[in-house]
């Protein structure tokens, strides 16, 4: 997405306070006709419900794949690492193609992209039902179905951001509620289908269910004020949160920056690609991306091997599968809870810090998860983990708004989801290989917990470093 250059003579009022940032946000949230850019309600709640349906179908399938994983182990007799690579490729394609989906949304509409994605997922699941090898599933389910999922996943975040601003935390919580609900509902459904119709019939029915993404896509009516703003207004500069611009002045040749964090002077020649990738020159955003990668490694490993580690500890298959549904219930509760927390006035200026802190207890729970001896302990730890995990997932797009303005939301959300895809590609295969070598899922859980704790700690340290730089800066008037 192109970013227009600004002349050196162009004056932007300097500001470093959070209050000025809020006033600026309110000013830029109005279209040129005085109508709110973000309705913060109305049809937006229908949009959020449609996004929840997309998350129910797409994310629910990915999170419940642990049940397919157990069947595929018996079907093809491959190692845990190679078998788990099926869902790893699916989630990687779903998320690493986020920038591509963001570009298509800007070029066409969210509605069109999501409908096409639903059709592709139907085709991918149908072809997967006829799988004759793990390699076959790498292509049919991992790549093809994953491409369709990518056309649904990122746009369903983007459209909610176009309709909400002040109520974004609650709206994102509602929209991503489908992820937890999908885990609760699809896990027992998939188990029933596998018992009744085997892998072939279960995958065919899953393909038919995914076609309902087209129904959700029809609900995604474009925001007319958003389209008006994008067509006729001058592109706003990228916003850099306070203090991090001090670091970026040293580490990034991107531009000159004003004191309020806006890029005020771009290179004289910019094109679509350079503007689209400019956010990757933001040091703090890259650190956030690393945290996203680590979180994805953690979450996908935890969910993929949850039935396996429970059965390894003596839990029967039925109750082991039930743990996935329990995660889903806790996930839903967490999304509601954290949605209200992130919208509190006292929290708004510390959203990034709170988001990173969520990773610390999640990592700790994973490290000690395998030490549980009874089913009650598994349920308790799963519930607590799900409450934190729901908060992290629900507020990712909210955190993105801390880095850029509305004109760059599509591309930046795409990059965040791409970071998540990298983690999904690395997590299950590496953790599965550790299980194959050690003979225990405990090592895999220790690995995913340690990775998340380290990445979250680095981002938290960076946050406090920025805060210290901000406090030490002399007060300057505009």
Describe how the helices and strands are arranged.
Blueprint: H1 18-28, H2 43-63, H3 65-76, H4 80-96, H5 98-107, H6 110-128, H7 134-163, H8 168-175, H9 177-210, H10 213-219, H11 224-232, H12 244-251, E1 256-257, E2 263-265, H13 272-277, H14 283-304, H15 306-312, H16 317-342, H17 345-348, H18 351-357, H19 359-369, H20 375-394, H21 396-400, H22 409-438, H23 441-472
Antiparallel strand pairs: 1-2
Helix pairs in contact: 2-7, 2-8, 2-9, 2-10, 3-4, 3-9, 4-7, 4-22, 5-6, 5-7, 5-22, 6-7, 6-9, 6-10, 7-8, 7-22, 8-16, 9-16, 14-22, 14-23, 15-16, 16-20, 18-23, 19-20, 19-23, 22-23
How would you characterize the overall build of this protein?
With 478 residues, this protein is mainly alpha-helical. It has helices spanning 18-28, 43-63, 65-76, 80-96, 98-107, 110-128, 134-163, 168-175, 177-210, 213-219, 224-232, 244-251, 272-277, 283-304, 306-312, 317-342, 345-348, 351-357, 359-369, 375-394, 396-400, 409-438, 441-472; strands spanning 256-257, 263-265. It starts with 17 loop residues before the first helix and ends in a 6-residue tail after the last helix. Strand 1 and strand 2 form a beta hairpin. Helix 4 runs antiparallel to helix 22 (409-438), helix 14 (283-304) packs across helix 22 and helix 22 (409-438) runs antiparallel to helix 23. It has one domain (43-225, 276-472): Growth Hormone, Chain: A (Up-down Bundle), CATH 1.20.1250. The protein has a two-stranded antiparallel ribbon with strand order 1-2. The protein contains 23 helices and 2 strands.
């Amino acid at each position: 997405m192109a970013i227009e250059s600004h002349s050196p003579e162009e004056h932007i009022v300097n500001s470093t306070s959070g209050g000025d940032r809020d006033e600026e946000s309110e000013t830029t949230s109005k279209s040129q006709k005085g109508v709110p850019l973000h309705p913060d309600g109305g049809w937006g709640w229908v949009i959020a419900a449609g996004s929840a349906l997309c998350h129910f179908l797409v994310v629910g399938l990915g999170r419940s794949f642990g049940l397919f994983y157990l069947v595929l182990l018996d079907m093809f007799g491959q190692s845990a690492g190679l078998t788990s690579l099926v869902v790893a490729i699916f989630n990687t394609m779903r998320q690493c193609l986020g920038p591509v989906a963001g570009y298509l949304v800007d070029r066409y509409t969210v509605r069109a992209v999501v409908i096409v994605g639903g059709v592709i997922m139907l085709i991918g699941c149908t072809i997967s039902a006829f799988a004759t090898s793990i390699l076959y599933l790498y292509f049919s389910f991992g790549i093809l179905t994953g491409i369709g999922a990518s056309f649904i996943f990122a746009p369903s975040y983007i459209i909610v951001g176009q309709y909400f601003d002040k109520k974004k935390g609650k709206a994102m919580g509602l929209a991503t509620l489908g992820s937890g609900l999908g885990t609760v509902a699809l896990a027992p459904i998939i188990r029933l289908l596998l018992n009744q119709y085997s892998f072939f019939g279960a995958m065919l029915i899953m393909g038919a269910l995914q076609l309902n993404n087209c129904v959700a896509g029809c609900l995604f009516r474009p925001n007319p004020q958003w389209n008006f703003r994008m067509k006729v207004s001058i592109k706003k500069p990228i916003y850099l949160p306070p203090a991090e611009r001090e670091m970026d002045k040293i580490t990034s040749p991107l531009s000159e920056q004003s004191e309020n964090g806006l890029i005020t002077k771009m290179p004289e020649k910019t094109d679509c690609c350079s503007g689209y990738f400019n956010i990757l020159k933001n040091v703090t955003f890259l650190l956030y991306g690393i945290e996203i990668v680590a979180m994805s490694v953690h979450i996908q490993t935890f969910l993929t091997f949850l039935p396996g580690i429970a059965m390894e500890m003596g839990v029967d298959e039925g109750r082991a599968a039930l743990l996935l549904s329990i995660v889903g219930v806790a996930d839903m509760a967490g999304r509601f809870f954290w949605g209200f927390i992130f919208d509190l006035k006292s929290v708004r200026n510390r959203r990034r810090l709170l988001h990173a802190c969520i990773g610390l207890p999640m990592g700790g729970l994973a490290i000690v998860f395998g030490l549980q001896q009874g089913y009650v302990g598994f349920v308790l730890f799963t519930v607590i983990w799900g409450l934190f995990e729901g908060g992290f997932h629900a507020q990712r797009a909210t955190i993105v708004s801390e880095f850029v303005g509305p004109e760059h939301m599509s591309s930046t959300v795409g990059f965040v989801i791409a970071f998540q895809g990298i983690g999904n590609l690395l997590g299950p295969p590496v953790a599965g290989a550790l299980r194959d070598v050690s003979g225990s899922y405990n090592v895999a859980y220790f690995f995913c917990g340690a990775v998340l704790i380290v990445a979250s700690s680095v981002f938290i340290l960076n946050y406090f470093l920025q805060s210290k730089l901000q406090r030490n800066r002399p007060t300057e008037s505009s």
